[in-house]
Each structure stands twice: as C-alpha cells, then as structure tokens.
Amino acid sequence: MAKLASKVYGEALFQIAVEENRTDEMMEEISAVSKALEENTELQLLMEHPKVIREEKVHLLENCFKGRVSNDVTGFLAVVVSKGRFKELPAIFDYLTARIKEYKKIGVVTVTSAAELREDQKKKIQEKLLATTGYKALEITWNVDACLIGGLVIRIGDRVVDSSLKYKLEQLTSQLMKISLEEGKEGERAS
Questions:
Q1: At the top level of its lineage, which domain of life is listed (predicted)?
Q2: Is the entire prediction scored with pTM above 0.90?
Q3: Which of 69, 84, 175, 177 is geometrically suited to a Cys-Cys bond with 29, CB 3.0 to 4.6 A?
C-alpha cells in the first residue's frame, strides 16, 4: 500500500512541477526538505508521535517550511501530513526524483567492475551508454567488486547487463551440469 501511495502522491507533485515548468526547482526543494527532516530528529519524532494531532503537525511543518520552499511544496507537505502519510515522505520524494530524472532523460546507472577503472575507460563506457540508451545525461555510480573476476555489470533502472567473468563461469557451470545430467539419464536408459 505504501508503494501505491508514494506513486500517487509523487505523481501529483510531478504533474505540478511539469505544468509549472519547475522540475529543477522542485528537485532542489524536496532535497532541502529531505535534508532538513533528516537532520532534525526532534521534528521527525514530533511528526510521528501519535499523541500530536494532525492539525498541530501541519501547523508545525508550515512554520518550518513556509517562505523557505514554494507554496506548492508547503501545501503538499500539509496534505501528506493531514492524510497521515508523513512516514512515506522519503518514498514519495524518491519516486518524484526518479520521475523527474526520467522526464529529463537522465539515466541513473551503476557500473560495477572487477578492478578500478581508469578515467578514459569510464569515459568510453559513458559515451557508449549515452549512444545506446537514449538518455541525454547520466548519473553514474562506479563500484568495484573483485568477485566479478573481470568484465562489467551495468544496471540502469531495472535492467541489468552482466558481462562479468563470474556470470559467464556460472552460466558455463550450469550448462555443463545440464549436459552431465542428460548423459547420466541416457546412460540409465541404455542399461
């Protein structure tokens, strides 16, 4: 249910951002709100406390953010809190951020290699990804995992391209096991 709520609320805020041509500003504002909430644990505790009534929570948030972020974001926060969805704000903001990046054709990519890549290698990978994905820009996180032995694992959203030696060896092992099992069955039939 929480995932559905984050999508519904996030999509509503996304539509406002697009209609008002404020996607960049909206991302900055939700980032600032997220940071403020993360850093102020007392505020979070108050917002999540069951004995503090929703109207007081809304008033508290409005006092904290009015004039610091747009009226759209302040009003949005008031709606989310008045509906009892404060705990879902991080998921809502994550959805909104992903949606805006998708809208702006910014790909979020994780590249994992067996060893640290040189800058020229990273640049080639980035150019190849831009040429093949249709994104205008990429936010790439570079990771190292020696268990891969060699090759790369590239994750873009829910798509994964695994060209690692570890994966290839696992595939080869699986194929050999199938062949071994099939030969074993044929040998039993011949007996």
A1: Bacteria
A2: no
A3: 69
